[in-house]
Structure formats: structure tokens, C-alpha cells
Amino acid sequence: MWKIEDEAGKEKDYNKMKEMFLAFAILAAAQDLRRKQIDLWVYVLFSVLAFVACLFEETSWFSVAAGSVLGAVLLVCGRISGGAIGDGDGLFFLISGLMLGFRDNLLLLGMGIFLCGLFSTVLYVWNLLYKKRDVRKLEVPFLPFVAVCGVGNVLWEILR
User: Fold this and answer.
1) Cα dist from 84 to 80, 81, 90, 113, 125, whole Å
2) How far apart are the first and last CA of the chain?
3) pLDDT at position 72, please?
4) Reported pTM
5) Closest to 47 (Cα-Cα) out of 75, 76, 67, 74
6) DSSP one-letter string for 5-19
């Protein structure tokens, strides 16, 4: 951890895992948006980096394990639903759980679902009213919405 001074001169702790998460989220979101899949090397690289960082940071193993449970649950739900939740999304949350912990990872998932749902609703209504195209079967990549929420969350923590 390193310290940041706020306006009053008080020091705040800032976890370098957040910086690693930002790089991971932006890279994964860019690949998901462009190709609707994320390269395996991205998952391997950031999972190794996160695991090594956990060894050197003051992180409890319970927090790391709890943070990753969300990704494991998404992977299981994806298998049960026949792929309605992509494996890439589950792997993303499995690895981001190593970096963020359970609370922040759950918050990230909730914010991402909300933002993606809002976008999808607006897209549906817009096409219904103006374009007259059926977009009900359109697949919307999820990780770009998660990345926007994650970047906003990390910036909020830095700036407050």
C-alpha cells in the first residue's frame, strides 16, 4: 500500500491492486467490445500478477478467496444456463475478486448489471420507436459496462 494526501493533508491508504484492476478491466473490456472474447493470456497474466501481489500485500487469504467466489458462482451459473452467462465474464470476476475483494467485486457486478440493463432498455425502446428493428436477440458485451463502473469506482476512491 502507499499513501495519498487529501485536501486536509491527511494520508489515505491506496491499494496498488486497484491500479492492476484498472489495467485488467480496460484491456478485457476493449477485447470484449471488439471481438466478444478475451484472449487467454490476459486472464493468465493478470491472475498471476494478482496472486503474486497478494503474497506481498497485507491481504488476508479469506478476503482473496471470498472475492473470487463470485466469479466461481458466475461460471457455475453459466454452465447451468447453457452459456447465457459467458465463461469470460465468470473468469473476469474470478480474477477481479483477487484484486478487489468480495464487497467491491459484488458492487462492481451490481453496477455493471444496472448499467448494461439501462443501455439495453434504451436500445430496445429506441429501436422499437424509431428504427423498427427487432433487437431482442442482440448480444451486448458486458465487460465494457463493468470497466466503466470499475474505473469510476477506483477514481472515486482516489479523488474523495
Assistant:
1) 9, 6, 11, 14, 22
2) 17
3) 93
4) 0.84
5) 67
6) E-TTS-EEEE-HHHH
